[in-house]
Amino acid sequence: MFRYLRFFFGPALGILTATMLFFGGPFLWVPPLMAIALIVALDQMFPYDLEETPYKYNWIHDIALYLSTPTAMYLFFALFWVAGSGDQDALGYGAWLSSVTGVDVIAARNETAWYHYVLMFLAIAPAATGAGGLAGHELTHRTTRPFDLWLGRITMAFNWGIAFPIEHVYGHHSYVGTMKDPATAARGDSIYQHMPKALKRTVVNAWEIEKARLEKVGKPFLSPSNVLLRMGAVSLATTAFAFYCAGWMGVLFHLIVCLSTKLALENLNYIEHYGLIRVPTQPVQPRHSWNCNHTVSGVLTYNLTRHSHHHADARVHYQDLRAHSEQPIMPSGFMGAYVSALVPSLWRKKIAPKLLEWDRTQADRSEYALIREANEKSGWPELGASVANSGGTNAATA
Fold first, then answer.
1. Which of 39, 250, 262, 353 could be disulfide-bonded to 335 (CB atoms 3.0-4.6 Å)?
2. Residue 397 pLDDT > 60, yes or no?
3. Are 27 and 112 a contacting pair, CB within 8 Å?
């Protein structure tokens, strides 16, 4: 039974994190920061999760996903509520929570110093991304299940993530490992160099994809059939609710959190595909994604860590993804890699040996020319030792 229940930890952690926000002060940022540190530590303590035994009751996994939508709604409401001041108490929730806990949460909020909010914005991004973005990602891949697809898009629209569900499913999975892919960072690019390019490409690709779809079905771009416009309406309604909760300060909080969750999601893409190369005309294979079988990260991301299989066949539901332990493994676990990427010198130290290993053991000879070009453009001298640079024979093609 634990194999089923473990995927409910994510929504439970999101609800706990959201509830702590109402108590103000250090509760705004200490719990999510502790969660990040704990995930990194536990990933190193637990053995890899290589279990691939089929599940019998898949509907339980669906419930875990569906719970992420109300979890995301609650977390965003908590963020809007703490943006309030004075006697503002959206939906009377503060008064109710005070009656239950005996803590005057409205007073606690009003006495919270400004720097706690700054720290909150820095710490809350992974939690906000996990609450809606990760389940939304899984649901938007279920294109043959209308309810799941609708729920996933709605969930991601809460944080103005209207381009991602379109570009990711219909663009990224086709473009991965190529220059056209917003999520595949070039060798040598830090997260800060990659982020602006990724944000722009995601939006441009999404509009191009949706425009082409509408033309194919004979619908005008400015019509109710435009998925991007429908999702935008949900996003606008969420921002309007933020205004209802806390006025313009609520709107500011919403936009800041939307930006931080978008950056967090792009950071995940960054570590999942960094520097990997594919000839555009060749099929996507498991080796074109960094994989991760760390137990805790897998549980909290709905097995997004098993990224090699996810890209080999995006139709497979998260509980059925294979471990693919023979595929390239990202350094330090999922959350460990996420944190490392924020420090470019540390990320370079960790990923450069991995890239050399990938060139030697995973790359196909048809990719050597592109690898040589990428290594040269990177400006990283250590990549000069790549087997692709010397034209040698790697283990994968020997």
1. 39
2. no
3. no
| Other Cβ atoms within 10 Å of 236 Cβ, number | 12
Supply the pTM of this predicted model: 0.92
Q: Are 378 and 188 in contact (CB under 8 A)?
A: yes
- The model's confidence at residue 327, banded by pLDDT at 50, 70 and 90, is confident
Burial of 371 (0-12, 13-18, 19+ CB in 10 A): buried
Among the listed residues 190, 227, 173, the one whose alpha carbon sits nearest the alpha carbon of residue 182: 173
151 burial level (CB within 10 Å; 0-12, 13-18, 19+): buried
131 — pLDDT class (breaks 50, 70, 90): confident
Q: How many CA atoms lie less than 13 Å away from 239 in the CB half-sphere? A: 17
Cα–Cα distance, 312 to 316 (Å, whole number): 9
The token pair that represents 157 in the structure block: 């629209």
Range name among 111-115, 268-272, 297-301 with the lowest pLDDT average: 297-301
Residue 391 pLDDT exceeds 80: no
CA 164 to each of CA 46, 118, 171, 206, 363: distance values in angstroms, whole numbers, following the listed order: 32, 26, 10, 7, 28
